[in-house]
Each structure stands twice: as C-alpha cells, then as structure tokens.
TrEMBL record:
This is Hypoxanthine phosphoribosyltransferase. It is an enzyme of class 2 (transferase). One of its GO terms (molecular function) is nucleotide binding. It is found in: Cytoplasm. It comes from Marmoricola endophyticus. Its main location: cytoplasm.
C-alpha cells in the first residue's frame, strides 16, 4: 500500500498538512506566552495524540518535558462511557508541575474530564488541556479546554493520529472516510 492509496480512501479533506501546521504554530504561540518563564510538562494521550505531540512540542520551541498516558474508555460501540482504565500511567511525578494534556480530538469529553480530575488529584501546580479538534458534544460535559485548534461538526474523521480500526493514523491530512472503506 503506498501513501496515495491511503489518501485515496478519504472522501473529503477537512484540514491539510499545511493548515494543521499553521494552526499548531498559533496554538504554540499562545501556550508559549501563557507559560513564559514557567515549567511545562506535556502529557500526550496515546495513541492518537502522537502526531500532535510531535509537531506541537517542536512548534513550542522552548524547554519542556513530555510524558505519555494510555487509557481505555469503556462504552457501547464507538462512544465513551466515562469509565476509564489506565493502561499506561505517567513515569513522571507531577506534583508541583504545570501539566498540559495534549490530545487530538475531544468528542464526548468524558475521557479527558476523567483524566483532568485524576491528574489534578496528584497535586500538580496546574492542569490544562490542548486539543487539535473538538466536536459539539464536548460542550455537554464540565471540561475546561484551554487550547482548541478547530471546532468541527459531529462526523467521524481520520488522519494525523486519528484511526479507523488502527489504520489511517499516518495520513498527513485530516479527512472523512469514503463509504467503501466501511463496507
Ligand atoms: P471522548 O472525548 O468521547 O471521551 O473520546 C475521545 C476519543 O474518541 C478520542 O481520543 C479518539 O480516540 C476517539 N474519537 C472521537 N471522535 C473521533 C473521530 O471522529 N475519529 C476518530 N478516529 N476517533 C475519534
Ligand atoms: Mg485521543
Ligand atoms: Mg481510535
């Protein structure tokens, strides 16, 4: 399978590689200003946030540390339930640290609101959330998201870390899948 075949499975490209990089540069400028002169620990949520973490951390262009968590969110079908299990915890003691959780998309927001309260209980100096994409349903949950790339409609997107059955994460763009992929 070559890259062209993967991109060929998209029916519509929502955000190109260049648009994503521009957006991350904007977000990075805000984050840099907000944390100027302060400690910063980025916490990426595996696996989807890998691409955002790689590009946002380099766009930040300042001293920072990175750590990772893997969580599974049980739910019926494709929706989160808010019942979260930690599959891989942080290797870092976050007490006294400024934690910025980095994610690629927020749908119901249940996973992240659980993660924010879990990390907040570890006595960090601060906990904030940055996400590239956010869907409308996230507004229903009590979750303060400090940095959002784009608000998008409620449709299933892939690429740039986002998967369908673990594929398409390596697409450079974000888009919607063609119907033939599902069938
Ligand atoms: P929630 O915010 O509902 O707790 O869960 C968010 C997680 O669901 C994301 O980290 C991602 O793994 C998955 N997800 C939500 N919406 C989409 C989508 O449109 N496309 C893909 N590929 N994953 C999604
Ligand atoms: Mg994620
Ligand atoms: Mg997934």
């Amino acid at each position: 399978m070559d890259a062209a075949d993967v991109e060929g499975d998209l029916v519509e490209i929502l955000f190109t590689e260049a648009e994503i990089q521009d957006k991350l540069a904007e977000m990075a400028a805000r984050i840099r200003a907000d944390y100027e002169g302060e400690d910063l620990l980025l916490v990426g949520v595996l696996r989807g946030a890998v691409m955002v973490m790689a590009d946002l951390s380099r766009a930040l262009d300042r001293h920072l540390e990175m750590d990772w968590m893997a969580v599974s969110s049980y739910g019926s079908g494709t929706k989160s339930s808010g019942v979260v299990r930690i599959l891989k915890d942080l290797d870092t003691d976050i007490s006294g640290r400024n934690v910025l959780i980095v994610d690629e998309i927020i749908d119901t927001g249940l996973t992240l609101s659980w993660l924010v309260s879990n990390l907040s209980s570890r006595n960090p100096r601060s906990v904030r959330v940055a996400t590239l994409l956010r869907k409308p349903e996230a507004g229903k949950v009590d979750l303060d998201v400090a940095y959002v790339g784009w608000d998008i409609p409620d449709e299933f997107v892939v690429g740039y870390g986002l998967d369908f059955a673990e594929r398409y994460r390596n697409l450079r763009d974000v888009g919607t899948l063609a119907p033939h992929v599902y069938s």
